[in-house]
Amino acid sequence: MIQARGLRKTFGSGEAVFEAVKGIDLDVHRGEAFGFLGPNGAGKSSTMRMIAAVSPVSAGELRILGLDPATDGPAIRARLGVCPQEDTLDSELNVRDNLVIYARYFGIGRADARARADELLELVNLTEKAKAKVDDLSGGMKRRLTIARSLVNRPDLLLLDEPTTGLDPQARHVLWDQLFRLKQQGVTLVITTHYMDEAEQLCDRLVVMDKGLVAAEGSPAELIRDHSSREVAELRFGLGDGSANPHEEHAARVAELGDRVEVLPDRLLVYGTDGDAVLEAVHELGLRPVATLVRRSTLEDVFLRLTGRTLVD
């Protein structure tokens, strides 16, 4: 569905040139959910815009649905569905007409457009809101309507840019279920998200991007296996008189208890295969953390290890 080799995207020229994507290779297969993770400025949005055939490739090779976006842009866009990060619904139209009018842009006849709108409203559980104004919908309902709109042309490839940003947990889980059902129906999904649990739930494979490059690629389980550990023991010590970080002081003492130790301002993370055994060994050393937690490693551990913990604006 998507094949990229040495894909690059640059902006500006001369001394002011900026390279947002620095030569990445990608393969997205039919029927899978493929994810892009990365901090702000990693190159995710630039890559997605090239895949959507709305931003020209600066260098390298890109094929979407077997077509070249440089020469076959309209044909590619006709077979894509795009769910942007921001809702761009028409507030002057009711819910059903947002779908009917959008379907007409793809040359779908009036009768078929109305039938498709009703079908999609049922898919996203908005049938009862068909005549409601967009402004009267909740945030979760607007996102579901935006996803429904992206499906009016029965796309082969659905691009979703942070589809659940700003939604409460209940609305996120409803959307996850609907996206999972779409994948079961054979729709190929390409997703960018900042939610690690969302990536674990939805993505068959994903890439972690950083500074315009692919830092790692694989399934969520493969990435956790290759870049983290099975479990993490979190240790929190009292801050004492505030003159020094006690977690830095204790890090050397627990360094041998796991595969890797990470010092944070408020806690120590000990990565290993058995978190409970780490806690027992910590107590045998005579250390008494004020709070402890044992959890499994997640994609967030992988993400932060690959891209760092420094805040990126």
TrEMBL record:
Main location: membrane
Annotated membrane topology: Peripheral membrane protein
Compartments (UniProt record): Cell membrane
Domain (ABC transporter) ranges: 2-236
Keywords associated with the record: Antibiotic resistance, ATP-binding, Nucleotide-binding, Transport
Gene3D superfamilies assigned to the protein according to its UniProt record, in alphabetical order: P-loop containing nucleotide triphosphate hydrolases
Pfam families, sorted: ABC_tran
MF GO annotations: ATP binding
NAD keyword on record: no
Top-rank taxon: Bacteria
Cited InterPro entries: AAA+_ATPase (IPR003593), ABC_transporter-like_ATP-bd (IPR003439), ABC_transporter-like_CS (IPR017871), ABC_transporter_ATP-binding (IPR050763), P-loop_NTPase (IPR027417)
UniProt keyword annotation of ATP-binding present: yes
SMART domains (UniProt xref): AAA (SM00382)
Family under the similarity heading: Belongs to the ABC transporter superfamily.
Protein name (Swiss-Prot/TrEMBL): ABC transporter ATP-binding protein
Source species of the chain: Nocardioides plantarum
